[in-house]
Amino acid sequence: MILRRSFIAALVPGLLVAGFYGRVMAFPVDGDQTTLPAKTELNEDALDKPREVFRSDIAGGKSYLVNLGNLAFSSPGILGGVARQAGLSCGTCHVNGAGNAKFFVPKMSTRPGNFDTTGPLFNPKADNFVLDPVRIPSLRGARYLAPYGQDGRMASLRDFVRNVVVNEFAGPEPAPVILDAIVAYIQDIDFLNNPSLGPGGRLIGKISESERRGEALFMKPFPHDPNLSCAGCHVPSGAFVDHQQHDVGSGGLFKTPTLRNADFNAPYFHDGRFDSYDQVVAHFDRVFDLGLSAQDRQDLVAYLTAVGDGTQPYEREGAGASMKEINDFTTVLATAIPAGDKDIVALAVDTIGNELRELTEDYPDRKNTSVSGGEQQRVLARTALKELVLTLRRIDMAVADGRTTDAAADYRNYRYLMAAAVPALLASAEPWSLFNPAVHDSHYAALRQVMQSRHMSH
């Protein structure tokens, strides 16, 4: 889940759209209300989110370090002032460890899905005075995909993470345990399963003739250079990468991207210049003079689509999914409280508290006239979530004062509420929440109208 930024309540005659604490809309952001430029798009109100698969879940469950890394990855607190004030986290760009094809910041992006990491917005000291955005990549299977960065400039994932936090987003120097945790989290994110891929990355099962022809073309040497082939760089047995950088006619040397789950990773190329496999194949045909027929191109696209597939790539956002991640974050406190680790407790309380406040706003309050019905259920859900936030604050204060016994007691109470009362109250109110598509659409239509009215009045 992504931490979202605060919005000022908007008032129009007969309609109060208030309390949008922490939520960024999927329509352009009003520049008067945020540190980000007007027309910024973060796509944080989407109901369908990329599904996140963890290697450790298969092995028995996520470790403390992985959960801490996920928590830090979701926290604006580890980044610099501009990003922190805007409520951005690593997870804003990498939604559930995937990418964000709709992410767009004016003067920092040239198209949705890319971003200039050496621009002036978040760290003026790192500005290279060139608009050179890079595509926001998925982190699925990152442990197989070294080196890191679109140009493959860093062999170490740990060094790359530190560079993003400190240099690209002007964050403070992370504690070693935070860096280790974020790396552990990223390395735990796995590819989505693809039943069409067998041993060695070859297609198996019910494969179409077009896909089989495409696979043969993928393996075939290029006509003007028999030392080159698609499979020579996108090695099927090696997660479809070769860990090298190549010049493929796109303006420099860039590392070979994986084709695993690539159906969900558009836009393509280092700067996201292409929207589709058709455009990618046409580029290679032109640059390397492959002499492909129309049928050849179709076959290669069919093959890439088969290789790039994955089981259940998206899941519907809901209270259950939100609570599951919050519970994962909360396990960090079970270790940090007895250890009296004030810094980790403070980070956890801040991050979990923000998540709970965001979840609260998924249950609109009684003043929001764009939602009708379920008023009592919504009030009870909001009250329960606010009580959790207050309990977290007590934990933070107790640990800060050295009262770990009191903090442990509050933590037990928090866990009891999370296991017993809160899930039932959220489920009862869900028909009138923003997780209901009809309520969601009505709510954001009303807010969009308010924002447009505000913009016109200025």
Short précis:
The chain is mainly α and about 450 residues long. It has helices at about 55-60, 65-75, 80-85, 90-95, 155-170, 175-190, 210-220, 230-235, 275-285, 295-305, 320-340, 340-360, 375-400, 405-420, 420-430, 435-455, and strands spanning about 10, 15, 50, 115, 135, 245, 255, 315.
Molecular structure report:
The chain has 458 residues and is mainly alpha-helical. The chain folds into three domains: 1-24 and 318-458, Four Helix Bundle (Hemerythrin (Met), subunit A); 48-192, Cytochrome Bc1 Complex, Chain D, domain 2 (Orthogonal Bundle); 199-307, Orthogonal Bundle (Cytochrome Bc1 Complex, Chain D, domain 2), CATH 1.10.760.10. Helices cover 44% and strands 4% of the residues. The strands form four sheets. Strands 1-2 form a two-stranded antiparallel sheet. Strands 3-8 form a two-stranded antiparallel sheet. Strand 1 (10-12) and strand 2 (15-17) form a beta hairpin. Helix 11 packs antiparallel against helix 14 (404-419), helix 12 (342-360) packs antiparallel against helix 13 (375-400) and helix 13 runs antiparallel to helix 14 (404-419). The longest helix has 26 residues, at 375-400. It is found in: Cell envelope. This is Cytochrome c peroxidase. InterPro entries: Cyt_c-like_dom (IPR009056), Cyt_c-like_dom_sf (IPR036909), Cytochrome_c_Peroxidase/MauG (IPR051395), Di-haem_cyt_c_peroxidsae (IPR004852). GO terms for molecular function: cytochrome-c peroxidase activity; electron transfer activity; heme binding; metal ion binding.
